[in-house]
Amino acid sequence: xxxxxxxxxxxxxxxxxxxxxxxxxxxxxxxxxxxxxxxxxxxxxxxxxxxxxxxxxxxxxxxxxxxxxxxxxxxxxxxxxxxxxxxxxxxxxxxxxxxxxxxxxxxxxxxxxxxxxxxxxxxxxxxxxxxxxxxxxxxxxxxxxxxxxxxxxxxxxxxxxxxxxxxxxxxxxxxxxxxxxxxxxxxxxxxxxxxxxxxxxxxxxxxxxxxxxxxxxxxxxxxxxxxxxxxxxxxxxxxxxxxxxxxxxxxxxxxxxxxxxxxxxxxxxxxxxxxxxxxxxxxxxxxxxxxxxxxxxxxxxxxxxxxxxxxxxxxxxxxxxxxxxxxxxxxxxxxxxxxxxxxxxxxxxxxxxxxxxxxxxxxxxxxxxxxxxxxxxxxxxxxxxxxxxxxxxxxxxxxxxxxxxxxxxxxxxxxxxxxxxxxxxxxxxxxxxxxxxxxxxxxxxxxxxxxxxxxxxxxxxxxxxxxxxxxxxxxxxxxxxxxxxxxxxxxxxxxxxxxxxxxxxxxxxxxxxxxxxxxxxxxxxxxxxxxxxxxxxxxxxxxxxxxxxxxxxxxxxxxxxxxxxxxxxx
Amino acid sequence: xxxxxxxxxxxxxxxxxxxxxxxxxxxxxxxxxxxxxxxxxxxxxxxxxxxxxxxxxxxxxxxxxxxxxxxxxxxxxxxxxxxxxxxxxxxxxxxxxxxxxxxxxxxxxxxxxxxxxxxxxxxxxxxxxxxxxxxxxxxxxxxxxxxxxxxxxxxxxxxxxxxx
Lengths: 570, 164
Description:
The structure holds two protein chains of two kinds. By secondary structure, chain A is of the alpha/beta class. In chain A, 36% of the residues lie in helices and 17% in strands. In chain A, helix 1 (11-21) runs parallel beside helix 6 (143-155) and helix 11 packs antiparallel against helix 15 (348-358). The radius of gyration of chain A is 24 Å and the shape is globular. Chain A starts with 6 loop residues before the first strand and ends in a 26-residue tail after the last strand. Helix content of chain B is 27%, strand content 41%. Chain B has helices spanning 16-26, 55-67, 99-108, 129-138, and strands at residues 2-11, 33-38, 44-53, 71-76, 82-93, 112-116, 120-127, 144-149, 153-156. In chain B, strand 2 (33-38) and strand 3 (44-53) form a beta hairpin. The two termini of chain B are 30 Å apart. Classes of the chains: A alpha/beta, B alpha+beta.
C-alpha cells in the first residue's frame, strides 16, 4: 500500500483529497448547510481553487464551459435542497451535450433522509433522468471509491455528468483514505475499437461513392478526433458539414467545408445531405434539428455509415447500413490506415453540383442597412478576434448567427447549449472558458432576453476579474420566438416583446464593469476593437440591432431539410 | 408491434429498479409486467420485463437498458426458444353451489387450492401468461373475488443462458 495515499481522514477531507488526486484545478460552487464541512476543508488548502458563483445554475454552466473549452472534467459543488434544484438546469444542459462533469451535492444527514428535513430533496431521484449516473454515498468507507467511479464514468465512453450526493454526517465521519488507482466495474466497460469488418465495408462504400458526404457532430469534439477527421476528409477529397455541436472540428474556412447543416444550416450543406449517395456520419445523432422530418430524409436512397461510441445513437431516428460502435479517434485511425494507398474516385461532377448550390449565397443579408444587422456584428467579431476567440452563446437567433458567421477553425472554441437549448448558459459558460484559458479572448454572444437569465454572474466576473466581452445583440424581442410567430403564428407576437428592459450600460457599471451602447453600424468595429484591447476588463457591448431580422435559411419544424425558407423568399 | 420478454441482469443496488422503470416511462416504452429478485449471487438481481413494441423500439429498449451503468447484461428472450412462467393467486367464490365446479376447473388447469374458507377458495396457478388468462376467462366472472399475478419470469431453453 502506498503510504502517502493512506491515512485517516474525515469524509470532507476525503472529498478534497479525491479532487486533488484527480488534478482538479477549479470547483465552481455555492456553500450551504449540508456542505459546510467540505467548504471548511476547501478553506484549509490551496490546490483546488473554488469559484464562488451567484446562483447554482451558474456553477454548473461554468463547470460545463470550463470542460468544453479545455478537454478537462468540470466540477461543481452545491448544497442540498434548493442548491440541487437550482443546479438541475445546468446538469440537464451538460447531459444533453454529453459533457464530462462531476457534481458534488450535499445531502441532509443520513438519519434525516426521508423525513422531510430542512433543505432536503431526493437528489438522486430528481437528477436520475439527466445524469449519466448518480450515487448517494451512505457510508464514508465508500466515498473514495465512489469519487473515483464518478470521474471514471463521467470521462469515459460517451461522457456525461455524474452526481455524487453526500449526506452531511458522512462528511464528518473518519475513515482510512486510499484513493484507488483504477476502477473495475463488471457492468460498465465502454468499447474502444470498432468492428474491423464494418470498417472495411465503410471504406469500400466511401471509395465507390459518386456523391460522398461527411456529416460530423459533437462526438468528434468530445473524442478530440478533429485531426483524424481533417485527414480523412482531405484524403477522400469529399465535402463535409458539421452540426451545431461539431463546429470547429473541421475548419470552417476550408474549401471542403459546406457550413453547418440543419434547421438553420446552409443551403449547400442541407442539399448535399439530402442528395449524397454515401453518407458518413461521425459522432452525430440525426436529431430533429439536423435532418428535420426523417420520412422526407428517407425519400432519397443513400448508404449510411455511422460511427458513434453510443450504440443507442445508432439507428434511433434514421436506419443505418453500416453501424460502427467505437471510440471515434480509434475508428478513424483504422479507417485512415485502410485508406492509405487507396485510389479515390473522381468527384468533379459532385463538386460542380455543390458549386451550383453554393452560388445561392444563402447567408447573404442587407449590408447597406442603416440599422445594425446582427450578422454584421458577428462578422466584425470574427475579424477583430481573428477567428481565435472562445465564443460562448445563449439560445436563440444570436446563437444561430454566431454559428453561421463566426468561422471556427479549431474545436472547443464554440461553446453553446445545443441539445437542451438553455437560455442563460452563455455568461457562466464564458466564466469557465476564461478560467480554463487565461489570457485568451472570450466572447459571450447573447441577446437581451437570454443574458437576463443568468445576469447575476456579472458579479462573479468582477470577483475573479474575468475579462469576458459580452456581445449583446439587443433587438428587444425574444428573437427566435418572434421569428416563429411571424412565420407560423400570423404575426401575433404573443409575449415575445420585453417591456422595461434595463439600461445594460448602467447594469454593467453597477456590477463594476464597463458598458457601451452601440447603435450605428459604423461604430460596431471600433467598439469591438476597443473592447478586446481591454485585456483586464469585462466589457458589456450592448448593440441595438434590427428588430425585424430573421435567421435564414430556415427549415420549418416537421419539414424536410431541403424545404428551406430562404432570404429571397420573403 | 409484438410482445417481447427482456431479461436483465442488474447490480443489486438501491435505485437500480427505479432507473429501469424511469427509463421506460421517460422514453415512452410499454411495460406489461416487470418482475425482479436477487439471483444465486446476491450481488445481482435478475429482472424480466414484458413489453410490446415495433422492432425499432425493442432495439432501442435493449440499447438504452445496456447504457445504464448498473445493468450488467440484457437479452431479448423472445428472440429464440425460451420458457415463460407466471404465478397467479386467485380467490374465488366457492359456496356449496360452486364448490364442485371450482375444484374441477382448478384441476383441469393444474391449479392447487391453497386456502379454503366457508365460501371461498384461493387457487394457485402457474403457467405462461396465456394459460392464466384462459383460466380467468373460463370462470364465471361473478365468482372472481380477487386476483394477484407476479408477472412473467423467463429463461432460455437448453444451452441459452444469461449470466456473467
